[in-house]
Structure formats: structure tokens, C-alpha cells
Amino acid sequence: MNFDPNQTRRRIQNLFFVLTCSYGVMTLGLLWWGAWQGDTLLAREDNPRLVEAELRIQRGRIVDTNNIVLAENGGTVARQTRLYLNTDIEPVVGYYSLRYGTAGVEESLDTILRGDITDEQQEVRRSLLHEPQVGQDVRLSLDLELQAAVVDSMGDETGAAIVLLLSRGGNEQIALVRAMVSLPTYDPNQLNSNFEQLVVDESAPLLNRATQAQYQPGEIISPFLFALEPELLNRLSHENIDLTNTELATRWTREDLLAAWEIWGFNESPAFSLPVADITPPSAADISSIERAISGESTLLMTPLQLALATSALARDGTLPQPRLVTAVQDEGEWVNYGVALTPTAPIIDSAVAEAVQQTMWQATSTGETEYLVYTASVQAGTNQFNHWLIGLVPAQAPRYVVIFIYENNSATVQWDTINQTIDRLADS
Amino acid sequence: MTRTSTAIHSSLADFADSPIARWGQWGWLVLTAVFLISNAVSLNILREGSWLGPAWLNVAVWGGLMITAALLLRRFRPWHDPLILPALAILLGWGFLLVDRLAPNFWLRQLIWGSIGISVLLGVAILPRNLRPLRDFPYTWLIGGLTLLGATLVFGVNPIGYGARLWLEIPFTGVYFQPSELLKLLLIIFLASYFAQREQLLRFRAPRGWLAPLPYLAPLLFMWGFCMALLVWQQDLGAAVLFFAVFLGMLYIAVGDWWYLLGGGVLLLGAAVFAYYAFDLVALRVDAWINPWPEADDRAFQIVQSLYALANGRVLGQGINQGFPQYIPVIHSDFAFAAIVEEWGLIGGITTIALFLWLTYRGLRIAMLAKRPFHIYLATGITLMMTAQTILILGGVTKVLPLTGVTLPFVSYGGSSLLMSCIMIGILLYLSDEVGQ
Questions:
Q1: What is the mean pLDDT of chain A?
Q2: Domain-by-domain residue ranges, chain A?
Q3: Do domains A49-124 and A144-187+197-326+340-428 have the same CATH topology?
Q4: Which among A359, B82, B162, B420 could bridge B181 via Cys, Cβ 3.0 to 4.6 Å?
């Protein structure tokens, strides 16, 4: 048999056909992973590109009401880092950590701060042009100077404080959070090295006590209960409060007390831009003794934020306001108001009753030329351990500020003088 | 199919020989230069903050090599296939940029090896000679290659300090050479010579139901045994599969009997099963191929990261230096294709495949047009070797096949591989000129 070139050429053609098919299979394999399975693959948690993309996001700044920067980004384009410029604002501002996630304002406004885009065309454009993901700045209602003063006034104590600024003449239903303190606090700049310790720390520094911790109210609840019983209110004074509490206990059933709890908003979580306590509405079975419950020493609990809102209603016309922490978001260089439109709600009590409660139960104190109102109460929280509450309204006439302090498990007498200095500052402002 | 493909082949052949195609060679080189310049500028800006930077050296070296190659080939081999050099040029320039971007420590070496490779390519293609010594002394070449390979058993090292010791150090130079790369070419020469001389003997067909007598099966069994030995001694899975696949392809061209291929396939499968149970490395690669996800952070890390890179490229890619292919271990040699797809997208990946398919077509076209059996088998063997190597690594990266640890010709980092690939292209250019005459 001789060499047959034609036969050999046919075999080479067959071989080329097989090799072309092999390249075709490789191309299909490429398309399978690159196009068909692409999104699924990229979304897997162990894809390091997710981390790389996250590291390049230029998060927006967080500023206080006077545009003082509270948190901003630093580092390089490829390795952005989050810097917190003042630890007095923790845990309100919270933290942003690649390893441990987000908390506080960093969590609740994460989408805005990250600059996430929901428009698909814009997303494609950003991806194609490799535009950096830049978040929007956020302005809070907090006043850093006031916040620092409140922190100073509480010293090394454990507890919480809230200062609300009430609207007058404008939108009556908004209460701006001027200060919100929870102690002890933590340094978010050191979070990655301290997180494991912070989580197991018994003093719970990661917890925002102002919005998430629930306490027995003690007799700090009395003004709110008597506001619903005008007849008893007329006979009430700061000195005979125990006597009047006993009388209230004979008049009210457990259901009456639960109704009062609901009226003042103590059995639901207020709508707020930070995580709040998960509150289960109490039932009659939760109240073992009506007397103790009316004295605020039962399983009926409240957070400082709830108390601050209820106090705001008493301080104004009887309407429960909505707390607001985030006031504006920067959009293309312009500050734009942030917040949902409110639907008007009916007052809980008549404004005359609210005024009567202030005059009857609050103790008038003066600083300089300004008079303000203070009401305090203590609750036993253990052997020789007390929680101390303070409510303040500043100034006494047409209050603009509501101040709430709670000192936790404090065995000594509270040095209210230091707190009064804070209130003095408000009174003078 | 045969008639149609013949017609296609004829028309393509006419086109390739036309003046348009010959001037088109320069057009392709200019287009490639534009591609490389734009990428070099991007790389400089992203790395240095200025359009001026070291990445220009890629363009300069590449430009010098390609202009020289095109002019010399036009002058001394006027009938060479003008459509091989453009494909080689794109792949080589792309490889320079890729090594610069992925493994700057190896980048200058790659430029040096590329320069040596193109110089040797031109020497092989241009210097006047005939191929008779290659054809007449096949056993000498093969024994020489096997001796070098055997030397790695005693003197073998691995430049990175661990892994299979497949390299020999050239004394006093600090340069390492991989004898199995040289063996690829020597084996092709041996097989081409063998088949050219024994083709008629091999065409014996056993009666239906009978095996061919041992002398006829001997080459098949010898090659299988050789590849098994390579696998056992060096655990070089890639080289073993490559050699056997090329042998089977050349055997088919010689004999034209699919049964030999089937028998070879069964032997290959048997060897694979043996290797799976005998060697941890092979077992690891097969397990990672079947289901990499349970060990995505451990033993299957490399292939999983490669798949992420393919997915991240999308259609247009992230752009040079803007993806994250560096998460793939040994990216610059084994997974260069994954880096291409991540940074130049599916378009870049498909372009790469198309370029290799084009080289396959041009190589087999030279084989089809060659007059002498030895030249036919030589061109076929060289084309098969490059194609099989490309398919093996593309299959490994895209998880169509288990990983075999071979390089992507012209693109991956690897001096020995680049040099031998250039020599093979040089031989093809030489053969194409002879065909053209």
C-alpha cells in the first residue's frame, strides 16, 4: 500500500474537526461559569472579591447638627478605613467593620452611607467606568458639645441619658434628639481588636441603653398615671404621692393599668432610626400586685426613649411626638431634609391636664434667670442597689427640652448637681 | 462534511496567499500594537499614577521583536504563512503584559525568554537547511531527550523550592530548564520519523474479532508505558497526558483507524484510575474537579478562585490591573487564562480561544499541503502538541477537565515552555515556506 496524500488530508480534516469541537466545549465551559453561573458565583460568601469591593467603598460622613464630623473615611482608594472622631457619640453612631458588620446609625443608614444604587442603568455605568462607590453624608440632630457635656455629667456611672428638643410653632409632632448617651461606651476605632471582649463584657458597652435597655420606672411613672385621673391629680402633691398611689390602686383594675400603659406608648417599640427594645405588650397575668405595679415596681418596664417621648407629650399639648435623629442627607452637594412625613395623631391628654401635671408634680428649680422643672424617683434594683431616674423640663414655662437620666445599680446617692449643670447649659441656650 | 471543509480550506488558503493577507499581517501587527499600547498606558496609570512607566518596555521589546521577525521572514522566507505571526504576536504581547501585571518579579525574565524565543524561532525558520538529520536519527534525539529527563531524577530541582522537581539548573547561570519541554519537540520528531517510515506496516488490519499481532500494537504499548513511567517517576500528570494524546492523534493520521484511538483512550483511562489511587496529587485534582465546593477554602482553593475570576470578568472584563486574579495561587503560569477573562472579560477569553484555534487551523493546513510524509507528521505533531496543551489548560481553568498543570503557550510565564513553543512555530513557518514554494 502506497502513501495516499488524499486519505491523509481527510484524516487531518477529521482531526481538525475534533479539535475545533474541543475548543467549542472549552468555550461553552467559559460561558457557563462566566455568564450563566456568574451572578451565583460572585454572590458566594467566600468570594474575596466581595471584600475587595467593600474595602473600596467611600462611605459618607456622619456629622452633628453643626456639621462637626463624627465619622468619616480615611485610608487609600483600595483600602478605605472608617475613622470615628469622638467616642462620646457611641453607641449612637455605632460602628462599621468589615469583620463585625454595622451597628447604630452606621447600620440603620447603611444603604445611604454606602451609596448603594438601585437603578440598574446607573449600576452598569458605574461598573463599566469603574467609578468608585461613594456614599452620601448624613447629618444627625445630635449636638456634639451638648453630648459631651451629658457624658461628663454622668462621670463613670452606668446608665443612659436623652435630651430631646421639642418643636414649637412648627411641626409639633417631632422631637429632635440633641443628646443620647449610653454608658459605658466603647471606642469603635479599636473594635476589631476588642470586639470579642466587648461582646462578653457584663456591663454591655455595645448596648444602647437609651433605646434598648428596659427598666422598672418606679414612681417616675406617677405623673403619667395621674394625668389620666384628673380628680386625684387635684389632690396630689409631691409629698403625698404614696398615699395617692394607694388610692389609685383601689380605683384601677389591672386592665385599667394596661390601658394607661398603652395610651402612653409604653407597650410598643417607638419608630426610630436606631434599634429599639423588642417590646411585648404586657398582659394582666404579668401584674401580680396592682399596688406595686402602680408604684412602678412590677414587671412593667420601659426604655428611657419611651419615657422621654411620654414626657414630651406632658411637656407640650399632650401629643406623643416622633423622635428624630437623622435630619438631612447630602445629595450632590446639597443638604436635603430626611424623614418621613408624619400623619397627625390625636393628643393623649388635654393640654390643660398636661400643664396641671407639670405644676403639681414637677419641682421648680432655677438657674440664673431661667426656671426649669425636675422630677426624680428611685427604684430598688437589688440589695442596696438602686436605679435613679430624673426627668427635666427646660425651661419651666413652655418647655423646649426634655431631659431623661437613668443611673443603673447605683448604691450611693446620685450627685444631681452635675446633671443640673447640664440642665443649666440647656436653660441658658 | 469533507467536501465542504475542503472547499472552505481552499478558499482560506487562496486568501492567505493573496497580497491582501500579506499586507494584512502588518495590519494585524498595528492593531496588536494599539491594543498593547492602550493596556500599557492603563497599567502605568493604575500602578505609577502616570502614563509613563515600566509597562512601556513590554511594547518596546514586543515591537522590536515583531518588526524584526516580520521583515526577516518576508526577506528570507517570502512564501511563509503570513497569518501565523499575527496570532503569535498577539499572544506573546498579551503574555508580556500579563506577567508584568501578575508577577512583576518574573517579568524581566519573561521578556528575556521571549526575546530568546523569537530569535531562535527566526533561526529555525530562516537558516538554510533540510530536515533530513531530524528524520534520519530519531532514536538519537529521543534518547538524548530521555537522558535529560532522566537527569531530573537525580539532579532535578524546583525553582520555587517545593513541588515536583522537574527542572535542571544550567550551571553558573541561575537559569532553570525543564527537560520535559524539550522532550515534547524531540518526541514529535521521533514519532514523525517513526510514522513516516513505518506507516505502511502500521496499516495492517487484524481480522474481525482479532487483536493485531504484538509488533503492530508495540508502539501504542510503548508510548503508554513511557507515559506511565513519566507519571510514576515525576508525577507530571500534564506531560504524561499531553504526550499520550499527541501520540494518539499522530497514530490516527498514520493508521486512520478509530479503534486504535479507542484502545488508547481505554489505556489512558486505566492510567488515570491507577494514578488517582496511587498519587495524592492526582486524587486531589480529580476530587477538586468533580466537586470543589466542600473544600473551597482548602484543597480546591485554586480552582474555586479561578471560577470566581471567570465570573468576575463579565463580558468586557474589569480592565488591566483592576480585577483580583492574584487570589489564584500560581496565577502567572497555570491560570493565566483566568486572569485574561477576569480583566478582559468573556470577549478576551473567547478571543484567546479563537487565536489558538486559528493557530491550529494554520498548522494543520501546513500539514495538509505538505508533500513529504515526514513533514506532514511533523506539522501535525507540532500543531497537536500546542493544541492539546492549550485544551488541557483551558479545560482545567474552566473545570471541564481536571487540572494538569501545563502552561498556556506563549502567554503563561515559563522560559522553557515559551522557548519550545517558539521553536515549534519556527518549524511550522519553515514548513509553510516550503509548502508555499
A1: 84
A2: 49-124, 144-187+197-326+340-428
A3: no
A4: B420
**Residue B173, H or E segment:** none
Residue A398 contacts B where some CB pair is shorter than 8 Å: no
CATH number of the structural domain A49-124: 3.90.1310.10
Looking at residue A341, its pLDDT comes to 66
Q: Which chain A residues are within 8 Å of B315, Cβ to Cβ?
A: 35
- In sequence order, what are the residues at sequence separation of 6 or more whose Cβ sits closer than 8 angstroms to the Cβ of residue B128? none
CA B233 – CA B164 distance, rounded (Å): 10
Spatial CB neighbours of B307, under 8 Å, sequence gap ≥ 6: A33, A41, B292, B399
Q: What is the DSSP letter of A406?
A: E
B327 contact A CB<8A:
yes
Residue type (1 letter), B89? A
The Cα A403–Cα A181 span in angstroms is 11
The pLDDT of B170-194, averaged and rounded, is 85
pLDDT at position B124 is 93
pLDDT of residue B56: 95
What number of helices (H) and strands (E) belong to chain B? 16, 2
Class of domain A144-187+197-326+340-428: alpha beta
What ipTM does this complex have? 0.91
Contacts 24+ apart (CB under 8 A), A48-53: A48/B305, A48/B308, A48/B324, A48/B327, A49/B308, A49/B312, A49/B324, A49/B327, A51/A98, A52/A78, A52/B324, A53/A133
Q: Which residue from B249, B327, B371 is facing A15, i.e. has the nearest CB?
A: B249
Q: Which three cell numbers stand for residue B130?
A: 533540510
Average pLDDT over residues A202-215: 90
DSSP code per residue over B320-351: TTSS-GGGSTTTTTT-HHHHHHHHHHHHHHHH
pTM of the model: 0.77
Which of B1, B203, B346 faces A34 most closely, judged by CB atoms? Answer: B346
As separate numbers, helices (DSSP H) first and strands (DSSP E) second, chain A gives: 17, 15
Number of neighbouring beta carbons within 10 Å of residue B276: 16
C-alpha distances in angstroms, B148 versus B142, B186, B395?
10, 11, 29
B360 CB near a chain A CB, below 8 Å?
yes
